[in-house]
């Protein structure tokens, strides 16, 4: 069992994680090339509008999609992959738009980076939504699921045509989602500023080392922390332990993303960037779909900190 656990971890860390980053890097960069490349402001706001609109539509449609494609036939499997691809494009555009809007209106300075972190994090703590900062390889979503179209919302409102559900979806997608983008941007920008700022390759490899080192350490701590959480009945204590673990995982995951993103920039056809973007976009999504991990590109939905009592919160 221990061997299988470590094998699973290595597949996630060395395949799912890098493929997810490759897809995001390729997709994000292609938007830079094709979406109003001569006007950064219009490009950013268009990305934000596309991303949030499509994400909201797919969230609102989850009940209908689940009912319409209840049978697992060939049509379902084809359309589900199309759904993953479209949803992935939407999420990347939401992040890209929000990120560039912050860059444009707050500048790319240390102060901007710090504010970008210290404002969202307390709000996420209060909303018990810090776990949503973590992406692949810290957490993955497999494509085999009884509820493939289900997207979690903060208050788990029943899927229906109601203001409660609409408000819950809007809160999750636009508000919590944008807070997460801001937090990622802040830490990422701080590493850009302070970690070998004039040496892109060393900065990339250092980020990969920091990220993997952090995640390996957390894997060693996962079992004892999980056991401790199972024994902890006090909600506040459970949330505190989970949040500490998840914030550490977030820093590790972010460094893996930043490192591999810069590695792609530096080593994959650096003299032909557009071709490089298409390659990482295609290899990323294609590899993930083959590994049944396509939904890992969807940094979407919402988990609630401290909600589980079986230790699975880490």
UniProtKB/TrEMBL annotation:
The chain crosses the membrane at residues 7-24, 44-61, 82-102, 108-127, 163-184, 204-223, 244-263. It comes from the Eukaryota. Pfam families: Fuseless. Keywords: Membrane, Transmembrane, Transmembrane helix. The keyword Hydrolase does not apply. This is Fuseless. It comes from Branchiostoma floridae (Florida lancelet).
């Amino acid at each position: 069992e221990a061997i299988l656990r470590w094998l699973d971890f290595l597949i996630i860390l060395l395949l799912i994680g890098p493929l997810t980053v490759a897809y995001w890097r390729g997709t994000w960069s292609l938007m830079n090339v094709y979406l109003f490349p001569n006007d950064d402001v219009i490009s950013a706001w268009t990305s934000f509008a596309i991303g949030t609109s499509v994400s909201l539509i797919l969230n609102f449609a989850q009940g209908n999609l689940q009912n319409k494609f209840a049978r697992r036939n060939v049509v379902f499997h084809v359309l589900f992959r199309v759904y993953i691809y479209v949803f992935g494009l939407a999420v990347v555009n939401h992040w890209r738009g929000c990120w560039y809007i912050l860059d444009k209106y707050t500048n790319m300075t240390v102060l901007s980076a710090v504010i970008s972190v210290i404002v969202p994090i307390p709000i996420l703590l209060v909303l018990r939504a810090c776990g949503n900062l973590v992406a692949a390889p810290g957490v993955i979503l497999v494509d085999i699921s009884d509820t493939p179209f289900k997207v979690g919302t903060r208050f788990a409102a029943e899927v229906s045509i109601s203001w409660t559900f609409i408000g819950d979806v809007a809160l999750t997608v636009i508000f919590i989602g944008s807070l997460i983008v801001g937090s990622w941007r802040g830490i990422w920008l701080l590493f850009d500023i302070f970690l070998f700022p004039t040496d892109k390759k060393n900065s990339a490899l250092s980020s990969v080392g920091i990220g993997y080192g952090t995640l390996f350490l957390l894997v060693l701590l996962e079992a004892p922390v999980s056991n401790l959480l199972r024994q902890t009945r006090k909600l506040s204590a459970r949330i505190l332990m989970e949040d500490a673990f998840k914030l550490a995982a977030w820093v590790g995951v972010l460094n893996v993303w930043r490192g591999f993103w810069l590695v792609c920039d530096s080593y994959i056809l650096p003299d032909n960037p557009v071709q490089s973007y298409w390659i990482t976009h295609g290899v990323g999504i294609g590899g993930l779909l083959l590994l049944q991990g396509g939904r890992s590109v969807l940094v979407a939905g919402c988990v609630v900190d401290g909600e589980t009592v079986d230790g699975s919160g880490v």
